[in-house]
Design brief:
The protein has one domain. It contains ten helices and no strands.
């Protein structure tokens, strides 16, 4: 309910500041919605990172609590590597912008963002992948702790192993976020991306503080489902917008549905990227079917019901 009120307030505010329906050709009019989209995705990926880290550190109490420090160092290195990857990706996009037309580059980066979001929203892939990902981290953690109890093992090697686990837990999510944000950076610039990412990081930091400092047991599964539903809406909007950009770049044809045009107002295209063309509506229908279909397919599978993570976060799978 609170989320709906926030979204409604943003829409009213944007309409007032734009003196009615904003001009869809002006990039600055989509700043608010883009900021919220970025924040939701960063928060979603941050939640998944916290799930892995909480599974890793769940049994690190007492004498084993010292192993949390190298994991934290690895997380810091993962964050630094994510920032480095961001600047590398921005440099590549900037170089391409000088040799590729703006429409083609926007269509290409937008298509990449849609693919990333489809992977994030694929419930079956998410279910299987997370079971394997968390299980692999848990096995590696057990091996490292077993090595630490061996007097002949190198403690430096054990600490490096824990640092690598922390690094991998964050950088995998950060890499996905970097790929997703390139289309927003190309269209709206770094300020909007920084604002949305900062908002998502603040929310992630609050959950991390409650998890690792206050030792609170949070409803991670419900939080992931809610953010997943929100990302589903973002996906449909992005797919419609991406299909339209591909039409403008002449990657795909434009077949107007004259019969539907009177029933699809201009604001539907502005706010929700719903246009009276066969290609845009078909793309959104296919994207929605993939997400919903993967959800029901994942539920029908008997394997991988819960992740063997050994902690409360295991229910996220």
């Amino acid at each position: 309910m609170v989320s709906l009120l926030v979204v409604a307030a943003v829409m009213v505010w944007q309409g007032i500041t734009s003196a009615g329906n904003p001009d869809p050709t002006a990039p600055r009019t989509s700043t608010a919605s883009a900021t919220l989209d970025i924040a939701v995705l960063v928060f979603r990926e941050g939640l998944e990172c916290i799930l892995v880290l909480s599974a890793l550190t769940a049994s690190m109490v007492g004498a084993n609590q010292a192993y949390r420090r190298p994991i934290a160092v690895g997380v810091g290195l993962g964050l630094a590597a994510t920032l480095a990857t961001w600047f590398i990706a921005v440099g590549i996009v900037s170089d391409l912008s000088s040799s590729v037309s703006a429409l083609n580059l926007q269509a290409a980066t937008g298509l990449l963002a849609v693919i990333v979001l489809l992977v994030v929203m694929n419930w079956f892939f998410h279910k299987v992948y997370w079971c394997g990902w968390i299980s692999m981290h848990s096995r590696r953690k057990k091996d490292l702790m077993a090595s630490a109890s061996d007097s002949g093992a190198s403690m430096a090697g054990v600490l490096r192993g824990f640092a690598l686990l922390g690094f991998a837990s964050l950088y995998r999510e950060g890499f996905e976020v970097v790929l997703f944000l390139q289309t927003y950076y190309l269209k709206l610039g770094g300020r909007v991306v920084a604002l949305g990412a900062a908002l998502g990081l603040i929310l992630t930091g609050m959950v991390a503080a409650l998890t690792f400092v206050a030792n609170r047991r949070l409803p991670y599964r419900k939080m992931l489902i809610v953010t997943g539903i929100m990302l589903g809406g973002v996906l449909l909007v992005m797919v419609g917008e991406q299909a339209q950009e591909m039409q403008l770049a002449h990657w795909i044809p434009t077949t107007t549905l004259a019969g539907l045009a009177p029933f699809i107002p201009a604001w539907a295209g502005l706010w929700f990227s719903v246009f009276p063309t066969v290609q845009t509506l078909a793309a959104q229908a296919i994207a929605g079917a993939l997400v919903v279909g993967s959800y029901f397919y994942a539920r029908r599978q008997s394997g991988c019901v819960t992740c063997p993570a050994g902690g409360s976060s295991a229910t996220s799978c």
